[in-house]
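Handout, section B. The chain below has 505 residues.
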Amino acid sequence: MKLALARAMCLNADILLMDEPTNHLDVMNVKWVEEYLLGLKDVTCVMVSHDTGLLDRVCNNIIAIENLKLKQFKGNLTQYVEKNPKAKSFFELKSSTGFVMKFPQPGFIEGVKSKGKPLMKMANCTYTYPVNSVPTVKNVTVQVSLASRVACVGPNGVGKSTMIKLLTGEVVPQEGTVWKHPNARVAYVAQHAFHHIEQHLEKTPNEYIRWRFQHGDDKEALAKDTMVLTDEEKEKVKEPVTFEIEDEKGNKTKVKWRIEKLTGGRKQVKKEVEYEVQFVGMSYNSNRYVSASKLAKWGFSKHMLVVDEKVAQRAGAFSTPLTTANVEKHLEDVGLDKEFGTHTRMSALSGGQKVKVVIAAAMWALPHIVILDEPTNYLDRDSLGALAGAIRTYEGGVVMITHNNEFCSALCPETWLMQKDPADGIAQCNCKGDAEWMAKAAKESVQAAVQLDEITDALGNVVKIEKEKKSKDKMSRKEKKQAEKIRKAKIARGEAVSSDDEDWD
């Protein structure tokens, strides 16, 4: 974006046409754009923007499009809204037309009973790009749960997107560890979201989603370094491994077989997961399940990650039949009417409509965690308000990189502040978790089947949750008897009894 602005400046134009000039820019650069435009005395500037502050401080004429007609108004945005109350959504984070955006709920995840239980973790991660000698990020420690509402903030180029790539496994840290729950589904809408659909512009959005998930797997999933074998790993998995087989008489013999591949089968056996393997030169009937610990020792760790990803994705993608009607309804839930979702090629869609296509596709597999990199780019004010509403009612975790302070302040009590350490100039992450909010979110969740005793914030701090006590007059007869029984037991043990416990006579 800065390069595009610089090229435009070099033209010394008489008329400057700008389409969303603040997209992707941090607050300092947005301020620079504003001051530059205000300093142009002999240049006419015409801009399309959904940035309320920019329009209000820079523009002295407003041209609104209503019912396919242009209406011109002399004055800034505040003055325009005073004369046209229907446009007040420019100053509110809600839809003025009543448009509602809905995300599909993630559903149950095996082994997770608390919304505060981490589903993704990074610990002390440092990453240096191959072309650099200095790390881009250093000693980053974060975690994400179903209760997370995180805004990742910081200046352009400080390493926010790199941290997210580490978290999602797109790149591998040189130091530190990254972990994801094997049954967790993660949707990642990248900063340059259009790269998902650039090769499919002749398809309609409906056709694109049906193509992308036709076999259950996400064909557009990014190639992750965490799942790509190195040459050394490729050689290791070719080595024969020892198995013990037993004949009909109970005699045991050790044999050496080569594993050809993991078939994709997976099952839980007591406390360990086992994966189905197929052997070189042997029929499907010879397949057997092998424990994860053995496969890891033999060099199949990345193969298991691939299986985990496919099992998790298919569980979500196959939950709703992949029909034209179902995809059409899904697209409408994110604000893309069937006229555009089913009957219009993507090459004819606006930037905001393309963003909705990418968000809809990411949500098809019912993710437990949604990671949005600059989700507000290209969205109009109505869609921005609707997106905020969808995030508020979503039962999964949300992490967003954004420069929109209004958006993140309204939605995200947790922040990951990425900034460079003055001592060495390397980006580090300062996390601030809001445990009280997570406790409240978990308590109010319609899917919360278990009362939480504790939650964990973004840094892993365990916080006890104070249970709300019922007064005596609000208790049922059974609850009163139980409370009296507990009170007498405390007295018998010689424990102190609170004033609430004593007030029974």
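Note. The CA atoms of residues 78 and 84 lie 10 Å apart. Compare this with the example in section A.
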